[in-house]
Structure formats: C-alpha cells, structure tokens
Design a protein that fits this description.
Blueprint (H helix, E strand, L loop, with lengths): L12 H24 L11 H9 L11 H18 L1 H17 L8 H15 L1 H6 L15 H35 L13 H37 L1
Helix pairs in contact: 3-8, 4-5, 5-8, 7-8
Main location: membrane
Membrane topology: Multi-pass membrane protein
Pfam family, one: DctQ
Length: 234
C-alpha cells in the first residue's frame, strides 16, 4: 500500500476482513456476558400497531415449529441475521471517522465510503434468510389477504416454486461471479483497491442461506396445510 502513503491513515485490507469476521463474535459474547450478569437492557415492547398486526394474522397462532431439520435451518438464519446486524455499528463508526478527518483535519479518507458500501451490500445479501424467516420480505397481498387461513398457506406453497427458481438462479450466478473474481484476484477500481472476491463470496453464501430458509418454510407450510385440512375434516 505504498502508493497510499500520502493519504494518511488507510485501513489495511487484512484488518478490514479480519475485523468483520471477529467483531460480531465479540459483540455476541459481550451480549451473552451482559445477559448473564443481568445488565442486558429489557426487550423492547411491541407497539400497538405491531400488536394489532399480529392479532389480525391468524397464521401467527398456527405456525408449525418444525422438526430438527427446519429448526437447524431456522437457527442458522437467525444467527446470520444477528451476526450481520452488528456490522451496522462499523458503518456508523467509519462515517464518523470520515466526518472528523474531513471537516476538522481537512484530510478526507480514500477508504471509508468504499468500506461502508461494501459492508452494507454484504449485509443486504446475507440477511435474506433472516428476513424470510421473520416474514420481512415485501409481497403483494391484495388477493392473499382475502383468502382463508388454509388458502393463504396453500398460496405460499404454490408461489414457492417461483421463489426456488429465483434462489437457484441467484446461487448459481453468484458461484460464477465468485469463481471468476477469485481466479483473477479481482479488486475494486477505487483508490483503496480492496479485494472484491470476498464480497461475491458473500453473495454466494447469502443465496445459499436464502435457499435453505425457503426449504424450511416450505416444509413447515406443507405440514401446516395438511394439519389445517385434517382439522377441517374433523
């Protein structure tokens, strides 16, 4: 990084990737330690709007918790969302550092903006499984809300075929991007020139997590659809 010596402090590439790998683990360990000592903050209460949304959705009370296979996938999705959520702290710290350096010391950085948008992009692709687990993806529910409970579950099962086509294409495409990027040791075109293949590797990992979360949801939907049919017959 001798060509960047005139720019002041520049975060080394190895430190950036290493910090992103260990920082969530440190924060999670700290959180567990704080909870064990009884110092963890109380869980935020749900707003009246959130409570009403749950009350309006009968599927909330009929969810099938799944078997060992779906629980393992759900745990993985939950942990992936928790891990990448801690990365947001880094983006805040990075931009705070940039503001201080730019406006107080008149030494703008060459790495903060790139480090932050790569970080947020990786968060976006890695959080797909977590979002699917908690029903956070946007969907058009004009017709969906008019269906009975079993009809909604059946609609989820039917539309899952389109989801799996998308997830499979995303994963295979991400693998091609990652393989090509790694083979040529691709770097970004900005001055910082950090390795780009880890980002595309996160695309592959995120698409795999999304696919697994979809499999878990489909299994639970099928079981719930059958159970609702049996209750209807009985």
């Amino acid at each position: 990084m001798s060509d960047l010596e005139g720019f002041g402090f520049v975060m080394p590439h190895w430190f950036y990737w290493g910090w992103l790998a260990v920082m969530p683990l440190i924060m999670m360990a700290w959180d567990r330690w704080a909870r064990a000592r009884g110092a963890a903050p109380a869980e935020p209460e749900m707003t009246p709007g959130e409570l009403q949304a749950e009350a309006d959705d009968p599927l909330i009370y009929l969810k099938f918790e799944g078997n060992w296979f779906t629980r393992a996938i759900d745990w993985t999705s939950e942990m992936s969302g928790e891990i990448v959520s801690f990365w947001t702290i880094n983006a805040v710290v990075f931009y705070f550092f940039e503001v201080i350096m730019r406006y107080l010391f008149n030494q703008p950085t060459v790495w903060v903006h790139e480090a932050s948008f790569l970080l947020l992009g990786m968060q976006y692709v890695l959080a797909g499984g977590f979002a699917l687990l908690h029903g956070a993806h946007v969907r058009v529910d004009v017709v969906y809300n008019l269906l009975p409970v079993r009809g909604r579950v059946g609609m989820d099962i039917f539309t899952s075929m389109f989801f799996f086509v998308f997830a499979f294409v995303l994963m295979t495409t991400s693998w091609t991007f990652f393989e090509n990027s790694y083979s040529m040791n691709e770097t970004t075109v900005e001055t910082w020139g950090i390795e780009y293949w880890p980002v595309k590797g996160m695309m592959l990992l995120g698409s795999a997590l999304l696919l697994l979360a979809g499999i878990s949801k489909l299994i639970k939907d099928i079981v719930l659809f059958v159970r609702l049919g049996q209750e209807r017959v009985a």
